[in-house]
Specification:
By secondary structure, the chain is an alpha/beta fold. 37% of the residues lie in helices and 20% in strands.
């Protein structure tokens, strides 16, 4: 069965604690923390996400799935390590070279945290094959990063299939996470393609019953 990582990107101001408690009761597998710096992507919610992540850490034992959509990766890693996330995922496109990718992987692991690499829709999946044996998760963006509520880019289903075939062929143990435009209509094809962690935000947060939608997405 796939796992569900609920993006808290569009949690309404003033409804944070109520929403987080409801999501925990609905048995989401992770809280997905979308961190944006206003440089790598247009939107800037950096401080807000750090505040939300710190608050969740105080009230919940559920793991935090931190997705850094930032240009300056290392300082962001340092700040978000303070909330003891289960995993920190950074963008391959934000790195200057392969050496930096390897350094960041090593640094995150040294701080007792799992590590993921994310790729934008335009990035060829082959570009990150060499890093797969050293990381815990590959996050395929199924929309352009930076905004909630977008429509899934269907070509990304093939990208997930290709990644799944490669890791199977090379016997690599790694999670495949898909993020963007995931709802009850699109989830089946994403799961069939090989993703085992689905990030959903709008689809869950706009539902009347969080548990029903999370169970149905699974």
């Amino acid at each position: 069965m796939v796992e569900i990582s609920t993006s808290i990107l569009s949690v309404k101001k003033g409804e944070e604690s109520q929403t987080f408690f409801k999501l925990e009761a609905a048995k989401t597998d992770y809280f997905h923390i979308d961190v944006m710096d206003g440089k790598f992507v247009e939107k800037d919610n950096y401080e807000k996400m750090l505040e939300y992540a710190s608050y969740i850490k105080r009230i919940s034992n559920l793991p935090l799935d931190v997705h850094l959509m930032v240009e300056d990766i290392k300082p962001a890693i340092d700040e978000f390590l303070s909330v003891e996330p289960n995993i920190i995922t950074f963008h391959y496109e934000a790195c200057k070279n392969k050496e930096e990718v390897y350094e960041l992987i090593k640094y995150i692991k040294e701080n007792n945290c799992k590590v993921g690499i994310s790729v934008k829709p335009d990035t060829r999946i082959e570009e990150i094959y060499e890093f797969l044996p050293y990381i815990h998760m590959c996050l395929i963006m199924t929309v352009e990063p930076g905004k909630g509520g977008q429509t899934l880019i269907t070509d990304m289903v093939k990208k997930i299939e290709k990644l799944k075939e490669y890791i199977k062929e090379h016997k690599i143990e790694i999670d495949i996470e898909a993020d963007g435009g995931i709802n009850l209509k699109t989830a089946p094809m994403i799961k069939k393609a090989g993703a085992n962690i689905l990030v959903a935000g709008t689809a869950i947060l706009m539902a009347n019953d969080f548990k029903t939608i999370i169970d149905e997405l699974r």
